[in-house]
Amino acid sequence: xxxxxxxxxxxxxxxxxxxxxxxxxxxxxxxxxxxxxxxxxxxxxxxxxxxxxxxxxxxxxxxxxxxxxxxxxxxxxxxxxxxxxxxxxxxxxxxxxxxxxxxxxxxxxxxxxxxxxxxxxxxxxxxxxxxxxxxxxxxxxxxxxxxxxxxxxxxxxxxxxxxxxxxxxxxxxxxxxxxxxxxxxxxxxxxxxxxxxxxxxxxxxxxxxxxxxxxxxxxxxxxxxxxxxxxxxxxxxxxxxxxxxxxxxxxxxxxxxxxxxxx
Length: 263
What we know:
Blueprint: E1 3-8, E2 23-24, E3 27-28, H1 29-37, E4 45-51, H2 57-65, E5 69-73, H3 78-89, E6 93-98, H4 106-119, E7 123-125, E8 139-142, H5 143-152, H6 156-161, H7 164-167, E9 175-177, H8 196-209, H9 218-227, H10 229-232, H11 236-245, H12 250-255
């Protein structure tokens, strides 16, 4: 089975423009995302899905430099962009990642993919309640489910956020909810990059733990954050703002994005 991580990335973030290629310990943030995905035992391929806008050409160029497949599609219709990215590599299963998650954990992804396959469903996300740190989120779904959502999901938020049509219609799709157990069950932590404070925290973590050739260990990160509360709570204002922006009920509040919304 071909299992492809599709990394959603562009340069035009409203609150932190060009964050995708901002440097973290000598490497663009997107490069760290790809490096971590390459450590997954389950993921068989990676595609960076960006837009065809001229402003996103640096992402295409970096992907080529990093020898990772890149697909450029619609800026606003991200659902169609994912369909095109999936078709470009003829995959069976998609793992949706956003490019602002430089601590995405390959072991958590492997666990989530195994859970999805064992459940035999079309879509798996953290539906019931958040168990992961924000920034370690992912969604796993079949290409068939994506294609059906593309045909039937006509509202703007269906197109912009890729998967809402799927999880809003459990009568049409088989859906499972993944909850992490163990030491990394830390929904209190914010480890995505949406603001300058988020970036400063990630840069501090990488300065502490990153060594070329090895990825940052998330268990070490959570222990360090607990021992350094000034950094643990450094970007909590951004998390509170995020929650205020998404005052919605149930499933939709959880799934408007895997982390901060990244087009």
